[in-house]
């Protein structure tokens, strides 16, 4: 789910008055809402990470507050030959790239937090937050050397986290927990050994 708060004179204002005319030399982008495009981008990121980690993906239907199930099979797993985690995706442009300090703040609806914080569970859950540039022009660059998808996803396990706000609760996402293929493999190895993500 993409989160983008309206800002005076910014994207939300522009969407309210119709699309901006294309800038000279800028590509003619489609008319999908920015938040819908953010959701698509974060799903692409998840697919790339899962592919590099050797994981399979499934999407629950209907969605009951969890976006994806990620499964990882390996003979080294001790609890089963294949383990699964549940992933809730969020995306925002309100946090700058390279967040300062050891963590950044992110606000969740309490209903989402309750689902992610449930403990104990038979299938562990993680929250993955993607930080993107405000402008779609800056989301990716492609060339012969690779595809640069910006900016980054971070993950956390919120099991046991308390609800503190009336309707929404702010959680802290560690900047050391970059969500990439190695992180996903490590998560699955811990879950496959009977531990937590």
TrEMBL record:
Alphabetized InterPro entries for the sequence: DUF4365
Pfam families per record: DUF4365
Region (Disordered), start-end ranges: 1-30
Record domain DUF4365: where: 43-190
Superkingdom of the organism of origin: Bacteria
Annotated protein name in UniProt: DUF4365 domain-containing protein
Species: Streptomyces griseus subsp. griseus (strain JCM 4626 / CBS 651.72 / NBRC 13350 / KCC S-0626 / ISP 5235)
